[in-house]
## 1
Amino acid sequence: QKEVEQDPGPLSVPEGAIVSLNCTYSNSAFQYFMWYRQYSRKGPELLMYTYSSGNKEDGRFTAQVDKSSKYISLFIRDSQPSDSATYLCAMDSGGGADGLTFGKGTHLIIQP
Amino acid sequence: EPEVTQTPSHQVTQMGQEVILRCVPISNHLYFYWYRQILGQKVEFLVSFYNNEISEKSEIFDDQFSVERPDGSNFTLKIRSTKLEDSAMYFCASWGTNRQFFGPGTRLTVL
């Protein structure tokens, strides 16, 4: 069983739509959850960082963690063409200093 | 804003050759990492490094790989005898303020 599952997409939505990206995981030891954005052939860029369950909001981005369901989400409001990228979920158990376990990434396309 | 840098951006090598990938982590960070991403696949953890020794390594990080911090600023990944399947993007990261910051990557092509 894969540790982190993420639908690779592509997910195509019109500009201005609300985007929902999700990951499921199997390792109950994970406590730190991150969302990274990656443009083609570039390094991952951290968007959101959450510890344990709950919500966190930063501008147009909201991250949700439901540890009981082993399910995390990233919502993007008022999506823009510049949001088009691959979104990677990542997680670890040890405070962020351990090696991260990544999902495969969802390729998001925002249509103008 | 401080950032992780990596050189070279692209490295082409022949199978069986040794390569060294270089990284300069953010200056006040103490944990350093290497990850790889084979084209079209997920980012995979290779190794973490703290206090001049390996802290954690994955099963991918076998005897052909080694890491070193030769001075106060550089962090290197050496692949001793490259194989075709080592072709990938290699990302360096460093940890600070509860998060890992990634470099832009080195694209390694093994012919």
## 2
Amino acid sequence: DNQMTQSPSSLSASVGDRVTITCRAGHTIRNYLNWYQHKPGKAPKLLIYAASSLQSGVPSRFSGSGSGTDFTLTISSLQPEDFATYYCHQSYNPPYTFGQGTRLEIK
Amino acid sequence: QVQLQQSGPGLVKPSQTLSLTCAISGDSVSSNSAAWNWIRLSSSRGLEWLGRTYYRSQWYNDYALSVKSRMTINADTSKNQVSLQLNSVTPEDTAVYYCAREYSAGPFRAWGQGTLVTVSS
């Protein structure tokens, strides 16, 4: 399996802060990297696909970058509804794998 | 707009078989541009991809190594749905299970509502 290492595992931040989450693949995945937001009781929501493409309907404060093995998700100015858990996901080759998640909490 | 509606029991006894279905509307299970995935979420392991089925002139399956020996994913074209069977379950299989439609290059844009499955006697 291509292990995805996500950091940090948790993060405390305030409304208006800029936050960055990183994800590293064990082997190159080109740009086959997706980011999801998950809130309790709901299905995960796709935010970013193909490393840097913003999913339709997702606010522009979310952005993604990277290629190969190193990727980042940035939220430019945190809003109250952004406090959730975030996961990266490689879809280069099955078996697909997810990062272990980053829990974003209110400071 | 693709919609996925999951069904199945929320409680399964250890050593028995976990069975879930995912009914598809707004798309065809035989679509040549889709793959139908199963994913689970647990507090101990986070999101875990389990496997998928897809049709490209014939049916194909891929499975995670951790469940490959116990899992079967099937498509039912007459009902336009996919199913998951996980044999010999243990409490470690307790999780919320999701089906999801995979688009080209792999992102999961459409998800089922999730089914909490508890493995307990």
